[in-house]
Every structure is written in C-alpha cells, then in structure tokens.
Amino acid sequence: MLLGWLTRIRSLQLVDVPKPTPGEGEVLVKLSAAALNHRDLFIRQHQYPAISLTAPLLADGAGIVVALGPGVKRTDLQDQPVILAPSVGWASDPRGPESLAFAVVGASKLSPVGAAQEFVCLGEDDVELAPPHLSAVESAALPLCGVTAWRALVTKSESAVRGHNVLITGIGGGVALMALQFAAAKGCNAYVTSSDPAKLERSKELGAKGGVSYKSESWEKELQGLLPPERPFLDAVIDGAGGDIVARASKLLKPGGIIAQYGMTVNPKMDWSMAAVLRNIELRGTTMGSRKEFADMVAFVREQQIKPVVSRVAQGLNLEAINGLFDEMKAGRQFGKLVIDIDGSSGSFSRL
C-alpha cells in the first residue's frame, strides 16, 4: 500500500501497488513505522520544490530488511531492523551537498523513495542498523530531525562543547528537541524558548538548564539572567524560526558567536543588523545533513542511549488518523515527533 496525495485537492489517498523486488545492490525493507516532518506539511500546501505526485510521502522510516537484491555486500542486513537515510546526493562534504541532485526523500521528483508505504526498495548503503534500545516508532522518529539537529549543533555551531552555552529556539518540534538532547549529552548548558510554559518545563526533564517565553517583549533579558555568572553569554544559537532572532540574539552572543539557522517558520526573510556585524556574529545556514553526518548521529544515539521524543502515534495507514497528525503539526501542539505505526505492531519491529 502506498500513501500518496492529490495535488489539486491537497488530500491524502491510499494506492495499491505491486510489492517491489530489490534490484542490483538494493534491499527490500518492510516498513514498521514512519514519521512526519514540517516538510510534509509544506508539500501538502504546495510550498516545497520538486514535488512528485507518484512518489510516496515522508522521509522518516524504519523497518526490517526482508530481502536482499543481487550483489548486495552487506549480507548481515538480512532480517535486521534498520533506519532509512532521509536524503540522497550528499556523501560527506561538511560544507554542503556534492551533487546538485541532492534531495530529501518522500514526494520528491529526485527520488522514488518515500516512507509512507508498506515496502520500499533502496540501496544497501541507504540504511543504518537501528540502535537496539529504540522501538520501531522511536527509530522512525529519528532520521531527518536527528541529522538536521546534529549538523546544526555539531558541524555548524562549533559549540557542541562541555560548558558552552547554547540557545535552542522553538522547543517542542522534532529538530529542536533532538538538538537539546544532543547538547545535553555533549555537556553543553542548553537553554530553550517556547510560548508554552508546559513545554519549557518538559524541556528541563530532557536536560535544559532553563527557558523563556519568546512571547515576552524582553525574553533576551530574562535569558541573560539565567546564564551562569562565570560565562554570562551565549556561544551559539540553534534556530528554526527566523523573525527577529538576529536582533535579539546579538545582545547575548559572545563576539564571534554563531547562529545556526535550519529553518525560518516565522518569515522567509530576516533582518541582518549592523550590531551583529560589529560583534562579528556569524549567521550560518544549515539544512538536513550528509550521509556521514547521518551515520555519526545514529552512532551517537546508540552510544548515549538517546530516545527521540514521540508526541503521538497513529495506528496503521488510517487516513483520518494521519490527517489528525497533520492537523496537530499545523496547530503547533506537538511536543516531539508525530509517528505512524504502519503495521499496527505497537511500536515494535514486525517481520510478519
């Protein structure tokens, strides 16, 4: 079963397709779970490039390798739980994709792969063994938000360092939560923003040192009061909102501090101030991540026993329930990932 969508009415539909057969160097994965990203909401709103009407939605997926195609070298993958790499065309260059054909999978003209289906064929190098402490649902919650957060914090911010002060804005979304968990595991002093007091409190359970409401007219002053006296400045900001973050954060960042920008949900344009220039602040765009960064991120999750936060799970390929997940994302109510338990196995990896 393939989960597609109709562009004219922006609705989801289920489509029956033949079970695929893995080709040369490919593996066949029986998907156990898949997860939503804001990208999928933007696709349904026609706000994303290179949209495909035939490739299934969703970049995040996890399942069991049930067959190996001819020539597969990683024969140890047979019958193993795996996580799908969420993109193609970017091997390892830390500066950016080596290929102009770089794409996130799911409803993309640049890749036939999508996680919203029961079976998928993909290259043997396009999967990572799932960390054994994760369920299928948790594994599916990891890929895109995990690699995006990893790149923003570890590769771009240069502040995944014990004792460094890092601000993570908009806590509650998948990327922000993963960035918080990575920062805490790295020994950073992580601070967060949200408009929801409950989300600020829950973030402390995940390792945040404190948080402030971005609805406050002077949240940067409130945050200043939370910083340790021996290091009363921010080393970096991990931001996915945009808006006035440069003007606000420049007052707190150390000279030469970094804003790692992975999204702009408030507005597709931002102001750049002379105050930021005079403080030698760096604004660094960052999006998704390379295949190497994805592998490094999964290894770190395995080593540190990190579990992605799951907000809600829809059981089976039930369109009403899946549309409910999209509604929750659009309203911004979630705290963590919104996941589809494809085979209804209660979050476990199913070989049946």
List the helices and strands and how they pair.
Blueprint: E1 2-6, E2 11-15, E3 26-35, H1 38-44, E4 60-68, E5 81-84, E6 87-88, E7 103-104, E8 119-123, E9 127-129, H2 136-140, H3 143-156, E10 165-168, H4 174-185, E11 189-194, H5 197-205, E12 210-213, H6 219-224, E13 234-239, H7 245-249, E14 253-261, H8 274-278, E15 282-285, H9 291-304, E16 310-315, H10 319-331, E17 337-341
Helix pairs in contact: 3-4, 3-9
CATH fold annotation of the largest domain: Quinone Oxidoreductase, Chain A, domain 1
What's the gyration radius in Å? 20 Å
CATH class of the largest domain: Alpha Beta
Going by CATH, the architecture of the largest domain would be: Alpha-Beta Complex
Query: Which term fits the overall shape?
Result: globular
Class computed from helices, strands and strand pairing:
alpha/beta
Number of strands: 17
What are the secondary-structure elements, in order, as H or E?
EEEHEEEEEEHHEHEHEHEHEHEHEHE
Q: How far do the termini sit from each other?
A: 15 Å
Largest sheet: 7 strands, mixed
Mean pLDDT level:
94
Looking at this structure, what is the CATH superfamily of the largest domain?
Answer: Medium-chain alcohol dehydrogenases, catalytic domain
Number of helices: 10
Strand content: 25-35%
**Spans where pLDDT lies below 50 across 5 or more residues:** 5-9
As an assembly, this protein is single chain
Overall number of domains:
2
Helix coverage percent of residues? 25-40%
